[in-house]
From TrEMBL:
<keyword id="KW-0436">Ligase</keyword>
<protein>
    <submittedName>
        <fullName>Acyl-CoA synthetase (AMP-forming)/AMP-acid ligase II</fullName>
    </submittedName>
</protein>
<dbReference type="InterPro" id="IPR025110">
    <property type="entry name" value="AMP-bd_C"/>
</dbReference>
<dbReference type="Pfam" id="PF00501">
    <property type="entry name" value="AMP-binding"/>
</dbReference>
<dbReference type="InterPro" id="IPR050237">
    <property type="entry name" value="ATP-dep_AMP-bd_enzyme"/>
</dbReference>
<dbReference type="GO" id="GO:0016878">
    <property type="term" value="F:acid-thiol ligase activity"/>
</dbReference>
<dbReference type="InterPro" id="IPR042099">
    <property type="entry name" value="ANL_N_sf"/>
</dbReference>
<dbReference type="InterPro" id="IPR000873">
    <property type="entry name" value="AMP-dep_synth/lig_dom"/>
</dbReference>
<dbReference type="InterPro" id="IPR020845">
    <property type="entry name" value="AMP-binding_CS"/>
</dbReference>
<dbReference type="Pfam" id="PF13193">
    <property type="entry name" value="AMP-binding_C"/>
</dbReference>
<feature type="domain" description="AMP-dependent synthetase/ligase">
    <location>
        <begin position="14"/>
        <end position="356"/>
    </location>
</feature>
<feature type="domain" description="AMP-binding enzyme C-terminal">
    <location>
        <begin position="408"/>
        <end position="480"/>
    </location>
</feature>
<dbReference type="InterPro" id="IPR045851">
    <property type="entry name" value="AMP-bd_C_sf"/>
</dbReference>
Length: 534
């Protein structure tokens, strides 16, 4: 049987509207509700309005929305129906960041939620609901028809590094593996699926495709609040729930799962970052009727992914690909490494690849012959399960050792007083760098107790030489700690007087208690350490 031709996003919407016109596709936290018939009708109205304003195939249209998921879904599908690329914009961007993004992607126009300010520049703006209300019968240009290889979306992401990257995906990439009338549809055990991902993220974009293709109605919870999120699950009897690890940790800390009946949940999906073992254990207790699945992918790699049902017997494992040929671990020269050896993680799928917009050298470094470099270090166990070691950029090179920040963070999160944790490497004149960490506490605790706790779980080389208590951790839109900002928090304070000479033993043994004592010989650090214990 010949392979089906590649699909486009407008094709998916048109087919769903024909088959399930009255079915609710999306509900959002503002009270919005969108059926497939309304979605198709309003998206076509937006497409015609954009065409009359001169938007053509290949243009780029930014979408500046906050929590109006129904309006955003209409605007997105209206833009791509013209053959233009939609650029979802994070509502958390500052005016300067927004202006830079619009300039960087070459935006022709900005569609926005009512009341959102748009900076001046080489683009025009309009409220998406106003465009949707424009009558399509007015004479004017007809929308161009997108082709499967046309760029459908550009997701602007900085990951945890703070460096902006614009990832372009074609219709064929977004629609890879989809069919127009699957039997059964995904998540058919649910009438409703819930998420709280921001619109401007890749996770949010994938939810839009799920709304087009999966069985349940998509309920978009808006900004994550653990108690409200659990209340929505219970009120709507949601069978499928999507989270990222930072949301999961906040839900567990809030004890919201004890105040609401979550027995309706049959599938709980975690993605966007490695799920700490302590959080995974907590989720299995909070959602006793649910299967907990962990997904591993990236904005660049979608639809390539690894997934597995969380297994307490393999707490560090992320899973295996459907085919073992779609995952490899390589050395610096690209040679494949055997199980057990740590190297660079690469994933692939047979989907058309993504690329960095306007960055051919960056694309060449990440996208190679169908493979995607994940930017992570990992290893395979004897059964082919992927064990993630760390982000390649986050690994602490301390002397001759490489120290994983993920292991340090996981150990910190095992402590009952630690609510959040992030570890980084800080400079050291002899070792190059040594571990340090920031923590947010649920309740006051003596940090020496935390250090003693860590000493039973980490090697001497992994023990943080400095712990800093903070009120909150800087995170990006998908909940990942922003490591450059974490490092800035851990920069030494301005010294008010010259430090006392350090004993020689402290230099030769930076991982032991003597090194910690050396840090506290500086009066400025001593004062800070006292503050940390309050």
């Amino acid at each position: 049987m010949p392979a089906a031709p590649p699909l486009t996003v407008p094709g998916l919407l048109r087919a769903r509207a024909e088959r399930n016109p009255a079915r609710t596709a999306i509900m959002d936290s503002r009270g919005g509700r969108l059926t497939f018939a309304d979605w198709q009708r309003d998206a076509q109205a937006v497409a015609h309005s954009l065409s009359r304003r001169g938007v053509r195939r290949g243009d780029r249209v930014a979408l500046l929305y906050d929590d109006d998921w129904c309006g955003y879904a209409v605007a997105f599908c209206g833009v791509v129906a013209t053959g233009a690329a939609a650029v979802p914009v994070s509502a958390s961007l500052s005016p300067v960041q927004l202006h830079d993004l619009l300039r960087r992607v070459g935006a022709t126009a900005v569609l926005h939620q009512d009341g959102r300010p748009v900076p001046d520049g080489a683009w025009w703006s309009a409220c998406g609901s106003d465009l949707a209300a424009t009558a399509t019968s007015v004479p004017g240009a007809e929308p161009d028809t997108p082709a499967p290889d046309d760029v459908a979306q550009i997701v602007c992401t900085s990951g945890s590094t703070g460096e902006p990257k614009d990832v372009a995906a074609s219709h064929a990439n977004l629609c890879h593996g989809q069919v127009l009338d699957p039997r059964p549809r995904r998540y058919a055990h649910s009438q409703l699926m819930v998420h709280a991902f921001p619109i401007g993220t890749n996770a949010g974009q994938m939810m839009l495709i799920e709304a087009l293709t999966a069985a349940p109605t998509l309920l978009c919870a808006g900004r994550f609040d653990a108690d409200r999120f659990c209340a929505l699950i219970a009120r709507h009897d949601a069978g499928t729930v999507f989270l990222v690890p930072s949301m999961a940790a906040e839900l567990l800390r809030s004890q919201a799962h004890r105040r609401h009946d979550l027995s309706c949940v049959r599938l709980l999906s975690s993605s966007a970052a490695a799920l700490p073992p302590a959080t995974a254990r907590g989720l299995t207790e909070a959602f006793p009727q649910a299967v907990l699945v962990n997904y591993y992918t990236s904005t660049e790699a979608v639809p390539a992914q690894i997934s597995m049902i969380v297994d307490p017997g393999r707490p560090e494992a992320l899973g295996r690909p459907v085919s073992s040929h779609d995952l490899r671990i390589t050395d610096d020269l690209g040679r494949e490494l055997p199980p057990g050896e740590v190297g660079e993680v690469w994933l692939r799928s047979d989907a058309p690849p993504r690329a960095y917009l306007g960055d051919p050298s960056g694309s060449a470094a990440v996208f190679r012959d169908g493979w995607v470099r994940m930017g992570d270090l990992g290893r395979l166990d004897s059964d082919g399960f992927l064990i993630l070691v760390d982000r390649e950029s986050d690994v602490i090179k301390s002397g001759a050792l490489k120290v994983s920040t993920l292991r340090i963070e996981a150990a910190l999160l095992e402590h009952p007083a630690v609510a959040e944790a992030a570890a980084v490497g800080v400079p050291h004149p002899v070792m190059g760098s040594v571990p340090a960490a920031v923590v947010r506490l649920d309740h006051p605790v003596d940090l020496d107790e935390v250090r003693d706790f860590l000493s039973t779980r980490l090697s001497r080389a992994e023990l943080p030489v400095r712990l800093l208590v903070v009120d909150h951790l800087p995170r990006n839109a998908t909940g990942k700690p922003i490591k450059p900002e974490i490092r800035r928090l851990l920069e030494p304070p301005v010294r008010r007087q010259p430090p006392a000479p350090a004993p020689a033993a402290a230099v030769t043994d930076p991982f032991g208690r003597s090194f910690l004592a050396t840090l506290t010989t500086d009066p400025a650090v001593t004062e800070e350490s006292h503050d940390e214990h309050q």
